[in-house]
Amino acid sequence: MFDKIRVFIVDDHPMVVEGIKSLLETAEGFVVSGSAYSGSEALRKLADISPDVVLTDINLPDMSGIDLCRHIKQTTPHIRVLGLSNFKERSYITRMVENGASGYLLKNIPAKQLETAIRMAYEGQVYMDPEVMRMIVRPDATDPTAVPRMTTREKEVLNLIAEGMTNGEISEKLFISPLTVDSHRKNLLSKFSVRNTAALVKFAMCNNLI
Amino acid sequence: MFDKIRVFIVDDHPMVVEGIKSLLETAEGFVVSGSAYSGSEALRKLADISPDVVLTDINLPDMSGIDLCRHIKQTTPHIRVLGLSNFKERSYITRMVENGASGYLLKNIPAKQLETAIRMAYEGQVYMDPEVMRMIVRPDATDPTAVPRMTTREKEVLNLIAEGMTNGEISEKLFISPLTVDSHRKNLLSKFSVRNTAALVKFAMCNNLI
DNA sequence: ACGTATATCCCCGAAAACAGGGATACACCA
DNA sequence: TGGTGTATCCCTGTTTTCGGGGATATACGT
Asked: I need a surface site. Which of A43, B26, B83, B152 has the fewest CB within 10 A?
């Protein structure tokens, strides 16, 4: 009951790892039972350690935090996983939660909230960073940052456009008519409410769509 | 001679600040004399504190680390400044150094090297992260990641292009002929070796030029 | 069985971008 | 003083994109 919560930290930045350690050891009720600088290292160590909560960065050198989360939940579902990132991209957050994460934090989270998040995760609840919360509560309505979803074909076309290919070239690559490519292109412009290809590419890159 | 080196940390992520504190306090010979979460807070505190070395993130909420560095070196040139970032963009590094920084570190730097960097900065030398070093030693030749530099006008035009504006619109905004804008556009395409605007925008965004 | 979404293809005309030249003026540095 | 870089402006012609339509087939869920 009064045991300390064992936390395992995964981040490729030593100073972030140290920072969390320091924050948690100042607080009461936590013990950092280990850490790793990559996804594979984390999985190796977790085979032995088995902490209560894993705090993982989203961007790891060898795999994404999302993949790591999935692995952990598949093999040891009792371990809670909290995502950690600088980015509040909707797709990251949702994919993290879809893969069983107990929450998603931003790296500029204050110490108090970090403690709360870990405690809640430990108790089986889901904690969301307030900023992150604001992202997800509005499905798509008034949220100006909501990203329209693309069909798989549109994604293909968008990527080739960003590569610098013309409608004609894309049509050859995908074995479809250039007119079809043009349709997709125009649908993309319309979906993202942009006027031309330049703005389309910028928007797509800003929202991690490419 | 045997005094501890006083370090001041500027980063908007509490856990990074804590991490560095923890790393430095484990090591011998350092004392963290203060920290700030923004550029303005840093400048305010530095008016009183006056440490030996300032360690600053490049991306701060209110100003860039580069601007902060310039301010510090203008008012208190004896204070050494070290840049700190996740990004190893050439432009960041060079601009940091141009503004008087004593070095540039990546956030995934190991503890030992962090100590070395601070000691060297304290002694008036310049420390560069090994990875960063590899970026700058090759002027532009064999380095595939080298980004051609833009003139200020080209930067303006590039940004407006990425906003979705046409040559005509840009020309009105900048009070120049649309033909001039077109020249800049073509120069950009040529400089970055891309075929069209879409690829230009993608490249620019990939390299933090926008 | 019927709507909805996706993917495909088509047309036309206007607007913009691209290719590939050339030219002038100004500043700055060697 | 002569080169180098930047910024400006111009021309011709071709290719591509954009705007605003319409149309068909397939799949999928209700």
From this structure: B152
Q: What are the contacts of B93-100 at 24+ separation with CB within 8 A?
A: B93/B128, B93/B132, B93/B135, B93/B136, B94/B136, B95/B66, B96/B58, B96/B65, B96/B66, B96/B69, B97/B126, B99/B66, B99/B69, B99/B70, B99/B73, B100/B69, B100/B70, B100/B72, B100/B73
Q: What is the pTM of this model?
A: 0.53
The whole-chain average pLDDT of chain B stands at 84
- Picking from A9, A15, A41, A166 by the largest number of B CB atoms within 10 A of its own CB, the best residue to mutate is A15
Q: What is the DSSP letter of B29?
A: S
CB atoms within 10 A of CB A157: 27
Provide CB contacts within 8 A for A180, sequence distance 6+: A171
How far is it, in rounded angstroms, from Cα B116 to Cα A102? Answer: 39
Q: Which two tokens stand for residue A131?
A: 């900023």
Residue listed under structure tokens 């619109």: B169
What's the CA–C1' distance between A151 and C17, in Å? Answer: 28
Give chain A's contact residues with B (Cβ, < 8 Å). Answer: 12-23, 37, 86, 107-111, 114, 161-164, 166, 194-202, 205-206, 210
Per-residue DSSP letter, B64: B
Q: Map tokens 């992260």 to a residue.
A: B129
Instruction: Residue count of chain A, please give it.
Output: 210
Out of A110, A198, A206, name the one closest to residue B197 (CB).
A198
State mean pLDDT over B171-189: 92
